[in-house]
Amino acid sequence: MLENMNLAATVTEALAKPSSKKARLLDAAEELFARRGFDAVTVREISSAAGANVATLHLHWKDKRTLYEAVCHAQAQYLAGRIERFVLEAHNPRDVDAWLDLAVDLMVDRPALAPLALQSLSGQLPEGSASLLEHDADFFRGLERLLVATLGLGRPRAESKLAMMSMIYFLVLTFNDSPVQQALLGGSPIDSAATRKKVRRFGRTLMSALVSTLQPKEKK
Q1: Closest among 49, 84, 60 to 11, alpha carbons compared
Q2: In order along the chain (220 residues), what is the average pLDDT of each group of 10 residues?
Q3: How many angstroms separate the CA atoms of 30 and 67, rounded?
Q4: Around Cβ 130, how many Cβ atoms within 10 Å?
Q5: Are 40 and 88 in contact (CB under 8 A)?
Q6: What angle do CA 154, 158, 163 make, to 5 degrees?
């Protein structure tokens, strides 16, 4: 039955029935994958966390790899919706502070987003799986163009690609509620308004570095 699973439809069905076993398995997988990554999590752990058995997981989600992709698809769908609403609300696309506020809100509302994005950026994925950043390729390409426009970068120099990738990685890391970040900032941004203020300041510093590093050179 699941050999030809329509992943998007199955995720939509699970999200529409949050108390169902399918949804509980998705939620448990999201928390475990975000915290420990794909390789370190077992099917038995996901099933146990969801109050189900392994056979039920296979019935609803086929296998661990499919469930990981389902988690990434659900997060990508949520992220796309939030950003599209943000843009439609007439925010100035050059307003870096507004983008930082959105990023902090996303970190609080969806703690799994940043860890899954970091797994995507660093290639820590099950072989052959689509990452969070690949589930809506057109949207994420558009987001990349919007980021470039927001920062006023024009067309980044070819030699800046590694710098851009590194900066984006560290920007995402900024909005990841990790033990290292908590030690750096003195607490969890999810629980503290003061720490969220520090995250915004940290993000602004990185954005400034990104602009200065990637700004196209002026022609002499």
Answers
A1: 60
A2: 71 95 97 94 97 96 93 90 83 77 90 89 79 69 67 55 68 83 85 89 81 59
A3: 9
A4: 18
A5: no
A6: 85
Half-sphere exposure of 92 (CA within 13 A, CB side): 7
Cβ burial of 108 (10 Å; 0-12, 13-18, 19+) is middle
Q: How many CB atoms lie within 10 A of CB 98?
A: 15
pLDDT at 214: 61
Tokens of 11: 């995720």
Length of the chain, in residues: 220
Q: Are 74 and 12 in contact (CB under 8 A)?
A: no
Question: pTM of the predicted model, to two decimals?
Answer: 0.80
For residues 27 and 10, the answer to whether their CB atoms sit within 8 Å is no
DSSP, residue by residue, 101-169: HHHHHHHHH-TTHHHHHHHHHTT-S-TT---GGGTTHHHHHHHHHHHHHHHT--S--GGGHHHHHHHHH
Cα angle 165, 167, 168; round to 5: 65
CB 6 within 8 A of CB 61: no
